[in-house]
Amino acid sequence: MSSPPTSGIGTPPPTSTSSFSSTISTSRCRREVERLRAERNAVANKMKEKLDPSLRQALVDEGKNLKESLIALEEDLVQLTDKLQLEAQSIPNTTHPDVPVGDEESSVTRKEVGSQRSFSFPIKDHLQLGKDLDLFDFDAASEVSGSKFYYLKNEAVLLEMALVNWGIAEVSKKGFTPLITPEIVRSSVVERCGFQPRAQNTQVYSIDNSDQCLIGTAEIPVGGIHMNSILADSDLPLKYVAYSHCFRTEAGAAGAATRGLYRVHQFSKVEMFIFCRPEESDKYHEELITIEENLYASLGLHFKTLDMATGDLGAPAYRKYDIEAWMPGLDRYGEISSASNCTDYQSRRLGIRFRPAPLEPPPSTNSKKGKGGSSGPTQFVHTLNATAVAVPRLIISILENFQQEDGTVVIPEPLRPFMGGLGVLTPKTKL
């Protein structure tokens, strides 16, 4: 999901003059609201006493004036708080000191697996293969829903289900709990995860006359599953693998590089998510990217893993690895997954903390009975997310890489048990 790029290197950008001014104004306004509330309460307490009619009337008038002033000031406080919140959301996470500095072109290749397949025949892209194999219908979907929607047909339906079930099965073996998430969430949860659902050129579909949005990734509802909670230290790490449909506006996306299934408004995805202790997030980031690499290597894909540069990091990401697979029909590498360490950027906004386990007392011969270790203060967990299966991008990769000269497409071995044993997609006979 797209999000604002970082504007600083290694540390957050300095607070803007506007943000600083808003903070002072909000603080002053809040103090004035508290003062007026105290005065109103004092007047209310005096009214409980036995008073002369003239004095009682004076207090009634004073209370009325305080109430009117308080209403106006509370409205100002709400507006100032909203403004401050919007400015705070524009501040990105810090970045890992080893993250390459610069725009996307400055990203560094971390690993490369396999090599580009050499074809002895003219190759087709996934659109032509889909037409020959009768797998997609973009025209009908465009009439029904608009551009960048599609119908999957015949074996493509089996292939989507196979990819989802295979992904969940493989990741579950690593200790991840399977989830199916809500696909409509509150806008506030989207914002707390680091995205701006109602900003200009947002990728998020908002629902009119409500505070809800369609999700662009299962990262958002999974991130919110423990919102406003204090987790036990013994429960960490919490690992989830979540299936959902995803919806993205793809504002500004156009051109040959986005055609077909590559960039669409609705798709299925399997997402990994981890809540962990702060000192362990780098370790689990490595675990996530290793799981991704092993998944795609087992399919026989050629891909490279990139350590993404600062200019390509979304607001929540402390560090992000992208995996790009070779798509011969498109004649380029295309992103099929990413893995991000968001440290405590999301958990602070979502209110997700953990209580460290009690510390063992030091050995002592005269320690008093019953004096065990003590827990430290609660801490914010770190959150990480990574894509296991982005269905349309993997369908592209499989069709284009494993096409044969006779027009058939070979299904990678790991997926066949999830497709009822089907190993080859064959063109439909035209009557």
From TrEMBL:
UniProt-annotated binding residues for L-serine: T217, R248, E271, N385
SUPFAM superfamilies registered for this protein in UniProt: Class II aaRS and biotin synthetases, tRNA-binding arm
One Pfam family cited in the UniProt record for this chain: tRNA-synt_2b
Low complexity: bias regions: 1-27
EC number(s) recorded for this UniProt protein: 6.1.1.11
Gene3D superfamilies: Bira Bifunctional Protein, Domain 2, Serine-tRNA synthetase, tRNA binding domain
Signal peptide: none
The entry's keywords: Aminoacyl-tRNA synthetase, ATP-binding, Coiled coil, Ligase, Nucleotide-binding, Protein biosynthesis
Name this protein carries in UniProt: serine--tRNA ligase
Protein source organism: Triticum turgidum subsp. durum (Durum wheat)
